[in-house]
């Protein structure tokens, strides 16, 4: 008979690594008890409204605020000139890419409020502060902004043509970066000797991020200490604190505190400082009162950074047997009016890193002109260039298979990097450490009933529908984890608190982080708490982005746990009257080797709180403050199969079947990973068939509300079938590979390949709206 399981074993079985533990945050959030930035109201606070340009491009001649200043409740109105007089800081791009000729890229810094020109509709030009929000709104409407209109340009390709309107006098042709990667001569040679070359013109449509929670902030200034405090939705308080201190406020970092509570989505958009923050601090300092600002949805459409927006000519060279020889991408990236913190990365380096995917493509060349236009700035959006790279490559592969008469599955398998080739150096200078790409592909083909598709197509045809299937065989390169804090604190009430510099803005970090700690130290799951949104408690923090959180924070927790064990052995030696060298740790207990004498880690912490007498040199606490040093990127990969039906009478597309198998390495919590995968897939479906940001020729946003901008809803997506083929990464302590953005990387190509298949191979660009599909069918 098996021995009964003890409490520690049961704890691990329910809450250890690999268990589908529900999100700890959900009971609070589902009851409407979350604390978002707009939920915070401080004593004596006042309210701010931003005055924004209604012109896309023009010379700022003057701002008349006299009438507005005299309106009831108005406490102050400030412009860029006021900030400049006070020593205004600047918002900066941190990307250091050189141009193809070696010269530095153009990186005009962005003032919080411009003094010379406005460069897009929504550019903030003044801040109005009043006692109530209604008073601030009324006064903002009364501010008269005198702008001498200039011609505008909204398209990146058009923006760098001769005669295009210039946004900056010192940025010729609006090109801030002429990026190039690869050996052009070798790539040209490979194309010259190729038996077949596939070419596609691909558009990566601009999207509005449209997070559930609009941006919001409250600025405070303490004159006695000279400290600035910002309550704001963010993706990481440590990085935002340093950006505000170093670039915007120009004060020592210890003079700035950032606090973030619950965050209602971000997808990259809330990662960095925005221009509203400096004028909020300016007003708070002058008024001696907290100043609160919350954007409305219309303002969010205009001022929140947008995503995507690339145009590329893509080419794939193959030999007579279908082996990939080289791939080449030449195109444009739309930066919008100002450079975001990491804006040039998406259409440049991340195309390089991600487009070769699971394939042993020896050569890659990427040439991208990053162009300023009179549109909302573009920055990171779920995947930030990684879905794009995979989408471009997978469309090429499917098209090449059709053109060469090779089965698309066979063409992929023929070019897969085999497991025995690991570690594999790619043409994009990345080093894959693990992956079983062909085995994974076989699993998704079986799970999706690939061979039964003809029967389903015939059934759809009988109902008057066109059915297509598409494959997205992706690999993405996660962001390299930055230094990350893994603090562990044993609380007086018996809880254990994890302190981390990553930040949950919808992912559900609490449960998986607690699972790692439970696995490592045997601490009861229900005793574990999480602190992540107070910069004063951090000495490091890379924030959340690039699908790196579990690799960074998870590794930090593992390493911090090792330090707890080291300290605990010394303390347990005293408690058990034994030498520390004779103490071992297993399943949450410190035991004397070879005996049944021991003490549970939680009991040991209680003895410390009770005043356990310790000799000199023995640690007096189990608390640990630890910083995990950055680890390499990881390489999540997978294969997604989408099936669509098209109504030829209307052009309406329905995604009717969706199957995915992913390699995320060690899966800490399969329930949460499935949820993250579903969310990424839905956003990919949205971009593929409905989402598109449209500007008029004079720079007005035509899709400025949900009346004109379509987001996917529940009835636009099917139920998802998800499976895992996990090959642990060899580059981090947990073997994890990251999962948060992979859904986009798999869904963009699988859905678009399915649409093209349903149309008989006719190429289309995203988004495949009913109008475009109907026109293609009737062309």
UniProtKB/TrEMBL annotation:
Keywords: Molybdenum, Oxidoreductase. Residues 31-151 form the Aldehyde oxidase/xanthine dehydrogenase a/b hammerhead domain. SMART domains: Ald_Xan_dh_C (SM01008). The keyword Oxidoreductase applies. InterPro entries: Ald_Oxase/Xan_DH_a/b (IPR000674), Ald_Oxase/Xan_DH_a/b_sf (IPR036856), Ald_Oxase/xanthine_DH-like (IPR016208), AldOxase/xan_DH_MoCoBD1 (IPR008274), AldOxase/xan_DH_MoCoBD2 (IPR046867), AldOxase/xan_DH_Mopterin-bd_sf (IPR037165). The keyword Oxidoreductase applies. It comes from the Bacteria. GO terms for molecular function: iron ion binding; oxidoreductase activity. PANTHER family: ALDEHYDE OXIDASE 1-RELATED, XANTHINE DEHYDROGENASE. This is Carbon-monoxide dehydrogenase large subunit.
């Amino acid at each position: 008979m098996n021995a009964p399981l003890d409490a520690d074993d049961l704890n691990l079985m329910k809450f250890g690594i690999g268990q589908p533990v529900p999100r700890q945050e959900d009971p609070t959030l589902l009851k409407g008890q979350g604390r978002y930035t707009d939920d915070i109201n401080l004593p004596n606070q006042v309210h701010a409204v931003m005055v924004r340009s209604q012109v896309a491009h023009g010379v700022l001649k003057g701002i008349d605020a006299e009438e507005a200043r005299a309106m009831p409740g108005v406490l102050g109105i400030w412009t860029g000139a006021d900030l400049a007089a006070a020593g205004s800081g600047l918002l900066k791009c941190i990307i250091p890419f050189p141009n193809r000729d070696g010269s530095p890229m153009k990186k005009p810094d962005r003032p919080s409020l411009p003094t010379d020109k406005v460069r897009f509709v929504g550019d903030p030009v003044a801040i109005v502060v009043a006692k109530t929000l209604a008073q601030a709104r009324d006064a903002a409407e009364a501010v008269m902004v005198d702008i001498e209109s200039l011609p505008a340009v909204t398209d990146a390709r058009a923006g760098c043509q001769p005669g295009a309107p210039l946004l900056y006098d010192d940025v010729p042709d609006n090109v801030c970066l002429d990026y190039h990667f690869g050996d052009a001569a070798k790539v040209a040679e490979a194309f010259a000797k190729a038996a077949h070359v596939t070419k596609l013109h691909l558009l990566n449509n601009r999207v509005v991020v449209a997070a559930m929670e609009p941006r919001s902030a409250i600025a405070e200034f303490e004159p006695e200490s000279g400290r600035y405090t910002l309550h704001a939705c963010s993706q990481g308080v440590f990085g935002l604190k340093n950006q505000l201190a170093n670039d915007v406020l120009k004060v020592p970092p210890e003079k700035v505190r950032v606090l973030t509570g619950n965050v209602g989505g971000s997808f990259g958009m809330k990662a960095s400082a925005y221009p509203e923050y400096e004028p909020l601090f300016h007003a708070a300092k002058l008024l001696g009162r907290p100043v609160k600002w919350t954007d409305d949805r219309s303002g969010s459409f205009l001022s929140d950074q947008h995503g995507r927006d690339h145009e590329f000519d893509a080419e794939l060279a193959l030999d007579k047997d279908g082996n990939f020889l080289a791939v080449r991408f030449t195109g444009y990236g739309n930066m919008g009016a100002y450079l975001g913190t990491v804006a040039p990365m998406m259409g440049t380096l991340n195309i390089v890193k991600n487009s070769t995917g699971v394939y042993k493509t020896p050569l890659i060349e990427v040439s991208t002109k990053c162009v300023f236009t009179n549109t909302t700035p573009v920055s990171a959006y779920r995947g930030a260039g990684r879905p794009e790279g995979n989408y471009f490559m997978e469309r090429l592969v499917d098209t090449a298979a059709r053109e060469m008469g090779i089965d698309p599955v066979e063409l992929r398998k023929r070019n897969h990097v085999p497991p025995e080739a690991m570690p594999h150096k790619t043409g994009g200078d990345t080093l894959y450490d693990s992956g079983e790409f062909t085995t994974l592909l076989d699993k998704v083909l079986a799970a999706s009933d690939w061979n039964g598709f003809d029967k389903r197509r015939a059934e759809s045809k009988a109902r008057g529908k066109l059915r297509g299937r598409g494959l997205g065989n992706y690999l993405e390169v996660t962001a390299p984890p930055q230094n990350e804090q893994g603090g562990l604190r044993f609380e007086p009430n018996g809880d254990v608190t994890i302190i981390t510099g990553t930040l949950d803005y919808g992912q559900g970090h609490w449960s998986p982080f607690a699972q790692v700690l439970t696995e490592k130290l045997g601490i009861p799951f229900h005793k574990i708490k999480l602190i992540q949104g107070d910069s004063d408690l951090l000495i490091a923090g890379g924030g959340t982005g690039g699908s790196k959180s579990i690799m960074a924070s998870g590794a930090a927790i593992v390493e911090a746990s090792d330090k707890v064990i080291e300290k605990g052995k010394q303390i347990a030696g005293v408690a058990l009257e034994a030498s520390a060298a004779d103490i071992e740790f297993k399943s949450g207990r410190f035991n004397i080797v070879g005996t049944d004498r021991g003490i549970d880690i939680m009991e040991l912490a209680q003895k410390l709180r009770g005043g356990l007498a310790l000799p000199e040199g023995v640690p007096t606490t189990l608390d640990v403050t630890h910083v995990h040093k950055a680890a390499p990127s990881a390489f999540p990969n997978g294969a997604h199969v989408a099936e669509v039906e098209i109504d030829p009478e209307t052009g309406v597309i329905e995604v009717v079947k969706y199957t995915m198998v992913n390699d995320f390495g060690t899966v800490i919590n399969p329930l949460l990973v499935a949820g993250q995968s579903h969310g990424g897939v839905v956003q990919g479906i949205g971009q593929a068939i409905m989402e598109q940001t449209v500007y008029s020729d004079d720079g007005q946003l035509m899709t400025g509300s949900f009346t004109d901008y379509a987001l996917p809803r529940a009835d636009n997506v099917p139920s998802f079938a998800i499976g895992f083929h996990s090959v642990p990464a060899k580059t981090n302590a947990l073997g994890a590979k990251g999962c948060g953005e992979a859904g986009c990387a798999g869904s963009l190509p699988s859905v678009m390949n399915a649409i093209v298949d349903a149309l008989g191979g006719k190429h289309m660009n995203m988004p495949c709206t009913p109008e475009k599909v109907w026109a293609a069918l009737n062309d």
